[in-house]
Design a protein that fits this description.
3% helix, 38% strand, 1 helix, mainly beta, 4-stranded antiparallel β-sheet, globular
């Protein structure tokens, strides 16, 4: 298991607010708010996690993803998916937007998003006159495979 360094910077971010996996099979770590805030319909609110992280391993990045339980209620990260680069050493922050018609209360310790780690492959581009292989699809865009 890889290690990610964490520095707590807000006393409201109790040890229980550190990202954790709910089950052995969980792909994402739960991100918990260290703030209390009412999010009104159509509004976006900022939720600092209360700690800084450093992934350090350049073959990894983390993605802040929505929680399905909140998504069905219309509460989603404002940018939908946030990328945390391996060299970032700042505070984790989640901006939630309320897409519903109801106000939604977030309290300290509530699970508001999830953090998923994914491998990163760095690539280089090679300028060519033609591709080395032509696919059946070619340059076909939306709907070109016959699946709407």
């Amino acid at each position: 298991m890889k290690k990610v360094e964490v520095i707590f910077i807000d006393p409201r971010a109790e040890a229980r607010n550190i990202p954790d996996y709910a089950t052995v099979g969980s792909a994402g770590l739960d991100l918990r708010s260290c703030d209390n805030c009412m999010i009104y319909p159509g509004e976006t609110a900022k939720f600092p996690m209360g700690y800084r992280i450093h992934i350090g391993d350049h073959t990894l990045c983390a993605m802040i993803m929505p929680r399905s339980g909140l998504g069905v209620k219309g509460i989603l990260p404002a940018n939908v998916v946030g990328i945390i680069d391996s060299d970032y050493q700042g505070e984790l922050v989640v901006h939630l937007k309320n897409h519903s018609n109801e106000e939604y209360l977030v309290q300290n310790g509530d699970r508001i998003a999830q953090l998923v780690f994914v491998p990163i492959e760095h690539v280089s581009f090679s300028v060519v006159n033609e591709f080395s292989y032509t696919t059946e699809r070619g340059g076909g865009g939306f709907g070109s495979t016959g699946n709407a």
